[in-house]
Amino acid sequence: MTPALLAISSSTLVHLSPVDLVIIIFYFALVLAIGLYLKEQANTGEDFFMAGREMTAWVAGLAFLSANLGSLELMGWAGNSYKYGILAAHWYWIGAIPSMLFLALVMMPFYYVCKTHSVPGYLKLRFGSGAQVISSVSFAAMTVLMSGINMYAMAVVMKVVLGWNITFSIWVSAGTVAIYVALGGLRSAIFNEVLQFFLIWAGALLIPILGLIEAGGWTALKAKILQNLTEQHMANPGSYTHLWSTLGNFNANPMGINWVGIVFGLGAVIAMGYWTTDFLVVQRVLSAKDLRSAELAPIIGAAFKMMVPIIVILPGLLGLALLRDPHTGGLIHLVPANLAWSEAGQAQGLHGYDEVLPLMLARYCGPGLLGLGITALIAGFMSGMAGNVSAFTTVWTYDIYGALINKNASDESKVRMGRYITVIGVIISIGTAYWAAGQPSIMDYVQSLFSFFIAPLFGTVLLGMLWKRATPAGGWTGLLAGTLSSVGMYFWVKFDPNAVRYVALSMDAQDQAQNMFRALWCCSICIIVTVVVSLFTKPKPDSELKNVVYGLTPIPKTERVSMFHSPVFWGAVVFVIFIILQIIFW
Amino acid sequence: MKSGSHLSIWFFTGVCLGVMGALIFAQGIYETISPPVEKVVLSNLHANIWWGAVLLVLGLMFSLRFSPARERARAEGKS
């Protein structure tokens, strides 16, 4: 997609009515008002960067989920389900639920007891400054890249639905995020994330409801998809509506992946790495007011995460069934063809993948509802971007500025630095948005980033928490080896496509499958290097590992509560529902 | 995330949903009186009326339950 195409403003799918504009303007005014209102409550470092550590489980849990539920998530995964079918739901179920429960019940006590400000901060306590620097620099790079992708996702919505100029969309929304995060810090980001959580559901839920009514229900939808894909001569048309039954072979499903990649690459490495060590989400839970709230927050997030496929995966499947003319067999063009087009989509006889959600929005939503739907996507963009920016600000201030540049920085100067760096982070993100525009499918690109930075980090943190013999030298060399090996495999395949057979074990492996296997390999390399180097270097004495390693950390006793207030009970309930969903959609 | 002296996030959420719900509901009523020329798919279901009403009711529930006056009274009751 070229910048020239993105800048098109003459052809528009819909025109906003006055009521749509009022809804959008009201939303912008409200988030700015929240930022201004909370400015007075963000005077200390603890207030600005950790929201005073006084959030309830519900607020922390919804913010935890909402920070991940950006417009990138909405559009990218709707696009991925349009491309890969229901297989995309794995990223919401096995790719989220077990790891969120693991964070809640196993890892959260460590983070909470050691009172760290960030995940790199934990690595400093455990492995020293080497691992902290590698982790914080790579994390900072990832967050600004992710913010840029969120901006691009936002610009695509505005381009397809409204024909708005990309620069206008980016600067207005980015400016708003910069203002409310710089004013109120993490507390402001969390407040807005909770608000955005409700708006996203309010704006996006109508599409699957109306779509299922039009399709005639779930069974009729599956039949329609099968019919359409068969008529298009697509390989394995039945695999688009099955979650597990086609994962026995690489070539039996549209993603070119097998169950090993999904279970181990996605479930055990990417998901565990993201949900337990990505500071963007962990920071929300660290703001909880006590340990029980910190344990309950990810469980509440997991319960809602299981339902997100309704508003994300289902619209993609509806697109496969309903965006094709039953009489001519061709695509229904709701917009000028060049506005919802991508080369990869055309090769499959489909619209551009990432445009499917805006297309469905335009199909069902008239004045008022369209404004709400657009607001939901803007809200998603803002929550995703604010999450990245607030995490970037904290890591920069504590783990780069405070650790390397000004070790004696006062609390006041850290807050001041936090406000400045928020604005700078947003500006850098704007630059990366234009880079993201060149990627064929947004989520493939995001998963590449995760495999670079998150997968090896998970290996380092896990060994750090569970194995007291891991040494500082082992920690930072393992992390570095894992990250470099992931980047190396990525470019190996880029320059020699035949290398896919080694990296992803099959020439059928599509981008997502490659990401999963690359994550699996680089995490394994990280663990092996950490273990080997640790066995040849001197470990820290036990006295220095108190509160950071399992077995040397006294977990504080939480108050006795009834079964219905117990994190373990609710964790078990969520896990049982997760299993049932796998069986239903097998 | 609330106290007697601070507005609750749930109050902000209620105001937001309530205002948007009222606007969408009103637009739905207007469209039944004066139907638009260009119609979306399934416009005969009048989604803006019932969806706007749902949001309005939810918004009112949140706004009233977590209104500043109630929060202040609750905080004073605790102290």
Characteristics:
heterodimer; A: 586 residues; mainly alpha; Sodium/glucose cotransporter; 24 helices; 69% helix; disordered N terminus; B: 79 residues; 3 helices; 0% strand; rod-shaped
Folded structure, characterized:
- The complex is a heterodimer of chains A (586) and B (79).
- By secondary structure, chain A is mainly α.
- Chain A has one domain (3-437, 444-584): Sodium/glucose cotransporter.
- In chain A, 69% of the residues lie in helices and 0% in strands.
- Chain A has 24 helices and no strands.
- In chain A, helix 8 (129-162) packs across helix 9 (166-204).
- The longest helix of chain A has 39 residues, at 166-204.
- By secondary structure, chain B is mainly alpha-helical.
- Chain B has one domain.
- Helices cover 70% and strands 0% of the residues of chain B.
- Chain B contains three helices and no strands.
- The longest helix of chain B is centred in the N-terminal third of the chain and has 25 residues, at 9-33.
- Chain B is rod-shaped, with a radius of gyration of 17 Å.
- The model of chain B has no long low-confidence stretch (mean pLDDT 86).
- Chain A binds chain B through residues 17, 19, 22-23, 26-27, 30, 34, 37, 41, 54-56, 59, 187, 190-191, 194-195, 198-199, 202, 206, 210, 213-214, 362-369, 371-372, 375, and chain B through 1, 6-7, 9, 12-13, 15-17, 19-20, 23-24, 26-28, 31, 36, 39-43, 45, 47-48, 51-52, 55.
